[in-house]
Amino acid sequence: MGVSGSRGHCYTWRVMTEYEPVIGLEVHAQIRTRSKMFCGCPADYHDAPPNSHVCPVCLALPGSLPVINREAVRAVIMTGLALRATIAEHTKFDRKNYTYPDLMKGYQISQYDLPICTGGYLEFDLDGQTKRVGITRVHLEEDVAKLFHRIDPATGEPYSLVDVNRSGVPLMEMVGEPDIRSAEEARQYLMKYRAILQFLGVSEGNMEEGNFRCDANVSIRPKGSREYGTKVEVKNMNSFRAVYRALQFELERQARLLDGGKRVAQETRGWVEERGETVSMRSKEHAHDYRYFPEPDLPPLHISRAWVSEIAERTPELPDEKRARYVTHYGLSAYDAAMLTLAPATARFFEGVLEAGGDGRAAAIAKPAANWIITEFGRLLNDTRTQIEESNVKPAHLAELIGLIEQNVIGTAQAKTAFEEMFRSGKTAKAVVDELGLRQITDSGALADSVRQAIAQYPQAVDDFRKGKDAASKFLVGQVMKLTKGKANPTVVAQVVKEQLEALR
Ligand code: ADP
Ligand code: ZN
Ligand code: MG
């Protein structure tokens, strides 16, 4: 089905006015532990040669026995606490049976009826309002192996390669209530959940790298209706943008079907990025029966309240708490505080600038620090696709630059030039300012010549000044700024201009 721009737009509008979207997300996040979920293999498989992080347990050799990774359980409890969920006292693991080549054992160890966390909620801001979405559960399971589908160039035969490194990596699944009402809400919710996981340090939350994955359940219903429509599960979205686009597409597709008097089929659809559409993968008739049963090789897990309290005490500051503190302690705007707490690396950089700024100066440099990070720095990072923690610019460098502006050593225009060079070269603010000769001219003696030159060039301005036109002196200040290529301190220039004009009166 082709979607032309204008019709697509029309339907977006229609979805919003006639129907109400109902969306619930299931999010899988790999947990950052040293070892895998049920064996001692390293969980980090970045840059590892294929099938190098494997052992009898994660290869599912007969006779091997799993052992629960305590750190992974701790991470799920910490996440549950952040989501205000109830942490189960008694929990267990279950076998989820299905056969697919990425599943070594023929079943996945997961949790069925007694997940570690139940209930809770997640809040995010949208259009100046706080939206709350209920959390159904968070449970612990294991990741599967990675398949690479290839085609033999000689014979044209398709074949697949299996890399078992990922098999057994701890995976946390969060199931959300169908409380989301638009594609944008879904995106915001997902970004907020990722921020929480990143601030807790439990997951990298990188969708492009596949350690943070989301399946979206989507339905629509006529506005005012209380019953849910038939839901479609959408998979294969590899970025936040893809989630937004896939949901937008799917909502429009469903609206078209209902408008045409057709029904939405309950099915799983895959997002095809290049085509910008979802395509059917399997219908509900082919749904799996996973034949869940308790994992006989693992003991049930008792989570003591003492352990939960200990984890609660050691929980790092959450993005919302940080944001509130930035507003109350440093007087930042809600917007700036929100921008700085989108990712921990940004918050860490900001706090690093305050620290480098020196004792008692945090409140004074917080605002300029926030401005630089959000605008200039943010733009350069974006343009060069650089992560803030990998940038040449270090917190101390930015603190120094802000100090130079404060002390009138450089003006704002020069500061921007300096920052660009700092970003490029990694040199300190002082070094760049000296190298590029960006120091402001604040010596009135040094500026006298430029002022004389401007006055000689524009005698009309002198006449105007004599007639009492204040704008004349402002004009001359502008000319001197031009002559000095913006390096003169405007306050000093204004003073010298006034002196010379007065003398000519
Ligand atoms: P299933 O039995 O297919 O696994 P669940 O009821 O367990 O379905 O829900 C799975 C996910 O689908 C949850 O995230 C939930 O919020 C969402 N969901 C449930 N019903 C709907 C619906 N009608 N429309 C959209 N999402 C839904
Ligand atoms: Zn292993
Ligand atoms: Mg379910």
Q: What can you tell me about this protein's structure?
A:
This protein has helices at residues 5-18, 70-82, 183-200, 240-259, 305-313, 319-330, 334-340, 344-357, 362-383, 395-406, 412-425, 429-435, 444-457, 459-466, 471-483, 490-504, and strands at 19-30, 86-87, 90-91, 94-97, 107-110, 117-118, 121-126, 129-142, 146-151, 158-163, 170-176, 212-222, 232-235, 267-272, 277-283, 293-294, 301-302. The chain is an alpha+beta fold and 505 residues long. It has 3 domains: 5-306, no CATH class; 317-436, no CATH class; 444-503, Arc Repressor Mutant, subunit A (Orthogonal Bundle), CATH 1.10.10. The strands form 4 sheets. Strands 1, 2, 6, 7, 8, 11, 12, 13, 14 and 15 form a 10-stranded mixed β-sheet that branches. A 3-stranded antiparallel β-sheet has the order 5-4-16, with no helix packed on it. A two-stranded antiparallel ribbon has the order 3-17. α8 (344-357) crosses α9 and α14 runs antiparallel to α15 (471-483). The protein is elongated. The relative contact order is 0.09.
Descriptors:
single chain; 505 residues; alpha+beta; Arc Repressor Mutant, subunit A; 3-stranded antiparallel β-sheet; 16 helices; 17 strands; 19% strand; binds adenosine-5'-diphosphate; binds zinc ion; binds magnesium ion
Number of domains: 3
Q: Low-confidence parts lasting 5 or more residues at pLDDT below 50?
A: 1-7
Largest sheet: 10 strands, mixed
Helix proportion range: 40-55%
Shape: elongated
Put simply, the count of helices is 16
**Beta-strand residue percentage:** 15-25%
Q: What is the arithmetic mean of pLDDT?
A: 93
- Report the structural category: alpha+beta
Name every ligand kind in the structure: adenosine-5'-diphosphate, zinc ion, magnesium ion
Distance from N terminus to C terminus (CA atoms, Å) equals 79 Å
The value of Rg in angstroms is: 30 Å
Strand tally is: 17
